[in-house]
């Protein structure tokens, strides 16, 4: 399968506040190899070869923008399962899950810092 991206380096104001959210969410999204240290939460997929990578670090003056990172899910049922994890982990401003169009099922949310995310399943563009 072709890689969709190489890595994401995300900033948060407080790693201590963000840590529980990401320790719950990232493994559920398939980032199961935890290579975190004091300054970075670092997670990789374990699909073999070069892994997808998602990292979170602290930047005290971080202000979330209007960007959104969307993760793909294999089915609407997977979106539903991950939405439950988002809510239990402290996700904010959760919208959905639900159909945005007949072919597009998604949940939208923010992390504790206000960084925007989406988990979606779509069957066409």
UniProtKB/TrEMBL annotation:
Q: Which domain of life is it from?
A: Bacteria
Q: Which Pfam families match?
A: Glyoxalase
Q: Which InterPro entries match?
A: Glyas_Bleomycin-R_OHBP_Dase, Glyas_Fos-R_dOase_dom, VOC_core
Q: Which residues form the VOC domain?
A: 4-122
In terms of PROSITE patterns, this protein maps to: VOC (PS51819)
Query: What is the name of this protein?
Result: VOC family protein
Q: Which organism is it from?
A: Luteolibacter arcticus
Identify the taxonomic lineage of the organism of origin. Bacteria, Pseudomonadati, Verrucomicrobiota, Verrucomicrobiia, Verrucomicrobiales
């Amino acid at each position: 399968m072709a890689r969709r991206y190489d890595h994401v380096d995300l900033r948060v104001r407080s790693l201590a506040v963000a840590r529980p959210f990401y320790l719950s969410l990232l493994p559920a999204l398939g980032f199961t190899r935890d290579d975190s240290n004091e300054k970075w939460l670092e997670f990789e997929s374990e699909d073999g070869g070069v892994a997808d990578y998602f990292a979170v670090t602290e930047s005290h003056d971080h202000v979330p923008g209007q960007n959104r990172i969307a993760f793909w899910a294999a089915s609407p049922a997977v979106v539903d399962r991950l939405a439950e994890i988002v809510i239990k982990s402290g996700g904010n401003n959760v919208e959905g899950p639900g159909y945005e169009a007949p072919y597009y099922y998604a949940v939208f949310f923010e992390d504790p810092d206000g960084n925007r995310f989406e988990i979606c399943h779509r069957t066409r563009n």
